[in-house]
Amino acid sequence: MTGKFIEPNDVPSKDLQTIGIINASERFAGITNIMLQYKNAFQNIGLCSKWFQLMDKKDPGQYPVGEVKIQGNTFFGETLSMGINRLFCFKQKMKSAECDLAFISDPTLIRTFGPNVKAVTFVHDLRPLTEYADRKVTTLIYRHLLKNLKESSLLIVPSMKTKVELLEFGFEKDRIEVVIESTLFKKTPSHISESADRITSSGKITVAYVAQDKPHKNIVFFLELAKIAHLQGNKIEFILVSKLKRSTKEQLNSFTLPNLCVVENAENMEEVYSNTDVLIYPSRYEGFGIPLVEAMAFGIPIIANDIEPMKEIVGDAGQLVPLDSPVQWIECITQLLDVNLYRESAEKSIRQFDNYSQMKFLRRVRQVFQKIISEV
């Protein structure tokens, strides 16, 4: 099957047989969700794609279903396995894989395809090169492979923040395209009235944080907010949506928080947002922050850390508050117990969602990939 970009009254673009989507992230990882959005976009704009799922771990159930699955080798330690697989093993095992254009989900996979296949690489952020890197060895691997990133024909980033970071590393401006992310969630204005009615009838407000349990996500700050609210007797309920590490669970068990609910396996995120009145986002570092856009789809007001790219994304959808004042965060939440103020904030949030609609995302994907396809 040959895919084409088809614009009304335009000559169709050059035929392209297959875009190979190269993903190594696990099933519920943020990068996987982003790549699934691109796969959906390719289908909507008439392009054929094939999903190549690279697996560091032995359990295939931890990964999304793909047309082609490539099992990596297992060595001593998860990080060592990831490093060797990305540097050597996946490249060898992908030799027979065929596609006309490789769309790579992670800079560490840049050497997966040979030099004869053009590559477009998605760079969500450069966190492995910052103080928020998960492990030192990850930083070393990333630094080594970042040099190879210059072999990519085009780099796609989700925000101006990531583009600026790449420019600081010496990448050419013309080879970086910003494609603002979207969500498959539909705009749900009815949620505003439902939340307002719930706040009025219960006298309480429910806030949520959706995040991976990693240091830069700053889950400890969210727990601190729950602790302060409990001690002050504030009418705030907290929902933490995260698969927690053992150390975080041990920390949680050390104190009682009756106002906190932890959801570790949320397969239906729409249900989570339908029970959320305010989204809290105290992350210390982000490339984008897709839960911000998901919350906007429901008209959920946002309170986020006062850093980029949150400034770029949130706009009028909420308030930006520095992390040095947890009490100020609590005050921002309790102010929204005023239903009139809540409705006003919620309306601003859902209007901001229009900047991240699926239609805008599809148009931008078409524009960017049309550019690279003309060179294939």
Can you put this structure into words, describing what you see?
The chain is α/β, with parallel strands linked by helices. It has 2 domains: 181 residues, Rossmann fold (3-Layer(aba) Sandwich), CATH 3.40.50.2000; 167 residues, Rossmann fold. Helix content is 39%, strand content 16%. The chain has a 7-stranded parallel β-sheet, sandwiched between helices. It has a 6-stranded parallel β-sheet with strand order 10-9-8-11-12-13, with helices on both faces. Helix 6 packs across helix 11. The longest helix has 16 residues. The chain is globular, with a radius of gyration of 22 Å.
Assembly type of the chains comes to single chain
Cα distance spanning the termini: 17 Å
Series of secondary-structure elements, N-terminal to C-terminal: EHEEHEEHEHEHEHEHEHEHEHEHHH
Q: What is the alpha-carbon Rg in Å? A: 22 Å
Content-based structural category: alpha/beta
Strand content: 15-25%
Largest sheet: 7 strands, parallel
CATH architectural arrangement of the largest domain: 3-Layer(aba) Sandwich
Q: What form results from the Cα inertia axes?
A: globular
The H-level CATH homologous superfamily of the largest domain, spelled out, is Glycogen Phosphorylase B
Can you identify the CATH class of the largest domain? Alpha Beta
The helix count comes to 13
Query: Which fold name corresponds to the CATH topology of the largest domain?
Result: Rossmann fold
- What is the count of structural domains? 2
Average pLDDT for all residues: 87
